[in-house]
Design a protein that fits this description.
Length: 288
């Protein structure tokens, strides 16, 4: 994931290994392909990339209410579906660049049916190295339309890394930024939003953020903190809208996670709550 700015150490990152939370998210997406019907998000590469045994053995779900674990898994599937749908709509409207920030084990670039649509994956070098090895082991080809942009934020600059990777800042782009914001300091979030909003030709960003956690979410937070990847930043809908407007976004959709899940799947009104995450799709005005 995109995480560190100078002054913040992510102890859960190990040399040559992916982020623990990035891996857990990939396991959830893969297990969704095996366990959930109807399926919200179809990804034929998810299980191949992670491995079926790993898909069934998510350490963050151990000892958790199975229904709560399922609802979290459905949310992760929903946010991937929402991002995929946004990219597909943008490509249909003429966008030809997609930037996946904190890509983790995301597979969108390898499922891309459009040879003229370029994907850029931004992530920590160790996560990318592990992923490239797994892609090779799983027989998943890295297409010519995909470029890795390794970024260690202790040393590197996002704008410089994407420029070096070949992103054209004068043309429109879609930015997918899932499972990252809650791990970032406020100034890093604001800086990234300003960078995205500065995309010439217009930008679309899809990302998730979390409300301040309730008691149930706090327990989840303790689990991720224990592996060295603590939650850092929380927002209300009003606070996030203010951040987006300050950065330069003019068209903002904000959806509660559970409401969006229910738009794709039948989730009973009773049962464990999933109050925290929200999904946002925001746009800037095109310069064209």
């Amino acid at each position: 994931m995109i995480t560190p700015r100078p002054g913040r150490t992510v102890t859960g990152m190990q040399v040559g290994q992916p982020s623990r939370t990035a891996m857990a998210t990939a396991q959830a997406r893969a297990y969704h392909q095996l366990a959930d019907e109807p399926r919200i998000f179809t990804d034929p590469l998810a299980v191949r990339l992670v491995g079926e045994d790993a898909a069934r053995d998510n350490p963050f779900d151990k000892g958790v209410d199975p229904e709560l674990a399922r609802r979290r898994r459905l949310f992760l599937a929903t946010r991937s579906r929402f991002a995929d749908d946004t990219v597909a709509e943008a490509v249909a409207d003429g966008a030809r660049q997609v930037v996946v920030l904190g890509a983790g084990m995301d597979t969108a670039a390898y499922r891309n049916p459009h040879q003229d649509v370029r994907f850029f994956e931004v992530d920590h070098p160790d996560t990318q190295a592990w992923k490239r090895n797994r892609l090779s082991e799983a027989g998943i080809e890295v297409p010519d339309s995909m470029t890795f942009a390794p970024v260690d934020f202790h040393r590197d600059n996002l704008a410089d890394a994407l420029a070096q990777a070949g992103l054209d800042r004068t043309r429109s782009a879609v930015y997918v930024w899932l499972g990252v914001v809650v791990y970032l300091e406020h100034d890093a979030i604001a800086e990234t939003l300003r960078y995205i909003a500065g995309q010439g030709g217009g930008a679309i960003v899809v990302f998730d953020y979390s409300y301040p956690p309730d008691a149930g979410q706090q327990e989840r937070g303790k689990r991720v903190a224990a592996v060295g990847e603590p939650w850092v930043s929380f927002f209300t809908e009003e606070q996030m809208r203010s951040e987006l407007e300050s950065a330069g976004f003019t068209d903002i959709e904000d959806h509660s996670g559970i409401a969006l899940v229910r738009s794709y799947a039948d989730i009973p009104a009773t049962g464990p709550a999933l109050p925290g995450p929200h999904l946002v799709r925001a746009r800037t005005a095109s310069d064209d």
